[in-house]
Write a structure and sequence with these properties.
Blueprint lengths: L9 E4 L1 H7 L7 H14 L3 E7 L11 H7 L7 E6 L2 H9 L4 E7 L2 H7 L4 H17 L3 E7 L12 H13 L4 E6 L6 H14 L4 E5 L6 H10 L4 E4 L19 H10 L8 H15 L24
Parallel strand pairs: 1-2, 1-8, 2-3, 3-4, 4-5, 5-6, 6-7, 7-8
The structure holds zinc ion.
């Protein structure tokens, strides 16, 4: 069951977008709708249901309009999308979306592969997009991809990231996301960048972490200790950027929920309902997914604080 306690950490579920965008097995509109509805039942307060990007580049994300139209819009749940340009914003507005995530890569090479333009051009587009979306009453989370380093360019100076964050804020972003697109962050670098970002702005900071080497949850813990209360994740650790070679998946949602429950931090998520969603995805994809924790226990089997503290 979904807990009645006040939620202390905010988890945005990204499976319907980041999770499936890179999968070779096609998802029908019905399957995408079913996935979003299943996640809504688990207790997530915000679900990224898809993206409005060029369907020729990301065929799994075609027809996000239909997904948006057909999901059960559960009260208290925010259904969000990812957009990268004003064309995407127009599509989001047309289906009544109220919350957006927008991203600009801190890496020139990745920006050209992912957004098809330079960092400068992507930034100009996104800043205009934020202003337009805010003017139309939407909430906008603006993020920096490759904030902790880049598979192509290596080190990304934190000063560059903070400068981008400040520009997002000046243009009206409500929330900042720092994305570890290639999964190269380490607890020390995460702590450092979170602190610099929080010093530079008052907006809430959330982390979108990919996990290339099992350090993902340690990065979550480091960010939590540095004051981050919001994290993205994906069922079974699905996902990854199609424009990064051997892109790692996200932090598995089940493991993230388990980590926080083990720390005595209320997530508001039902582990058993989440487990059912993951098992359905495993059946659909025909392989076990990468979390360590799925299906191992029912709600409340472990008392908070008994495992990791
Ligand atoms: Zn991602």
């Amino acid at each position: 069951m979904v807990s009645e306690r006040a939620v202390e950490v905010f988890i945005e579920e990204n499976t319907p977008r980041d999770g499936i965008q890179n999968e070779a097995v096609p998802f029908t509109i019905e399957e995408r709708v079913h996935l979003v509805d299943g996640l809504s039942e688990c207790g997530f307060r915000r679900i990224q249901i898809g993206s409005f990007v060029d369907p020729r580049r990301l065929p799994q994300m075609a027809h996000t309009e239909e997904v948006c139209e057909r999901i059960r819009h559960r009260q208290g749940v925010v259904y969000s999308v990812l957009v990268l340009n004003r064309k995407g914003l127009a599509r989001a507005l047309a289906c009544g979306i109220k919350h957006l995530s927008v991203y600009v890569s801190a890496s020139e090479t990745h920006s050209r592969k992912n957004a098809g333009c330079s960092v400068g051009d992507a930034m100009a587009e996104v800043l205009g997009l934020i202003q337009e979306a805010k003017g139309k009453g939407l909430s906008v989370r603006a993020g920096v991809m490759n904030a902790f380093g880049c598979r192509f360019e290596g080190h990304v100076p934190p000063e560059v990231v903070v400068k981008m964050v400040k520009r997002f804020i000046v243009h009206g972003a409500d929330e900042i996301s720092l994305a570890d697109t290639p999964g190269v962050g380490r607890p020390e670098t995460v702590t450092d960048l979170v602190r610099r970002t929080k010093d530079a702005c008052d907006a809430p900071v959330s982390l979108h972490l990919h996990d290339s080497s099992g350090i993902g949850l340690a990065n979550v813990r480091a960010a939590w200790k540095a004051g981050v209360k919001s994290f993205d994740s994906s069922c079974g650790g699905l996902g990854g950027c199609p424009f990064v070679p051997s892109a790692p998946g996200n932090i598995p949602t089940e493991d993230l929920v388990h980590l926080f429950e083990s720390m005595g931090v209320e997530t508001g998520i039902s582990p058993s309902m989440l487990s059912s969603v993951v098992q359905e995805l495993e059946r659909k994809l025909g392989r076990p997914l990468g979390s360590r924790h799925c299906g191992l226990e029912a709600d409340g089997l472990h008392a908070p604080g008994t495992l990791l503290e």
